[in-house]
Description:
alpha/beta; Epoxide hydrolase
Amino acid sequence: MPVHDFTVDVPAAVVDDLRQRLRLTRWPDQIPGSGWSRGTDADYLRDVVDHWATDYDWPAAQNRLNAFRHLLVDVGDPEGAVVHVVHEKGEIDGALPVALLHGWPSSFVQMLPLLPLLTHPSRHGADAEDAFDVVALSLPGYGFSSRPTAPGWDLRRIAEAVLEVMTALGYDTFAARGSDLGAGVLQQLALGHPDRLRALHLSGTNPYLGPIPADLTDDEREFVAQAQDWNVREMAYAMEQSTKPQTLAFALNDSPAGLAAWILEKFNAWSDCRGDLESVYSRDDLLTNLTLYWVTETIGSSMRLYYEAANSTTAAYGRVEVPTGMAMSARDMFPTPRSWAERSYNVTHWTEIPVGGHFLEWEVPNLVAIDMRDFFRDHR
């Protein structure tokens, strides 16, 4: 059978080694008072690393993860690749299946706060008829999914793997939600197999502009200017990951403090936290995400997806005609006007969310669930 039960079970020796490495961190200096302005704040990171090494309870986190149903799905690849999913059934028979796809530098844990809101809406003040069967995937190269061992695992190849997963789970057609790289995968899926998708639900500003049309509206001109400014100030990480991911992998796969610095800086910059990261996330939730990257040794393979996307020769291009709902936050990287999104998608539903940043499922799961129920109600 292509579907196998899976239990999160990290050997104690791996966790002990992590704690020892954290205790032996060699710290760089920092300009006093510079905070996050030049990168990850050293004082904050020291505090997090100390907590990770001494107080963070990975066995308890592992038990919380195992409260969900985990599966590994063979995706018919010569390498024997498997995709990890969390699969939770809705409270009614025939619930709408929905695939959830995360991006970088998060993982399937970004989706976990959303799951009970979608699978059992009647427990959260909504109608049971709005229930979903949820499949939260770990992208190949992330978490407990296989790390690709050959080139070619670009967004389009991952889209094919999503189809294989959903077919193996018995879903001929399904809805889907994603943001960041997950949204890129779903774009490829919608362009290549529109008949398999009932509708798409997306979030997140995309700072990649591509060719800029000549007939921009005033709002679109402002958007392009903001995106260009963002690319200059914030996109150096993506250029490195798109060109030389292996160089970074040596450092980040060897130093958990370095891994934390690289990832937490992005959560601080992209979340609606206004400089106080733990006003949005609990420290232990942030550390669960980091620990997954560490124990699976997937920081290198996760970054390689940027390289594969930038060098893809198979990516499809065109306008997505699958009905698309967008839940967009003005507190993401920068606001995206609807007219810009409509150049690439058949946008039939548009919601402006007043709070939350780039990781909406984690930051404001209730608002995301409400918008998904509202949008997908016409596509069941």
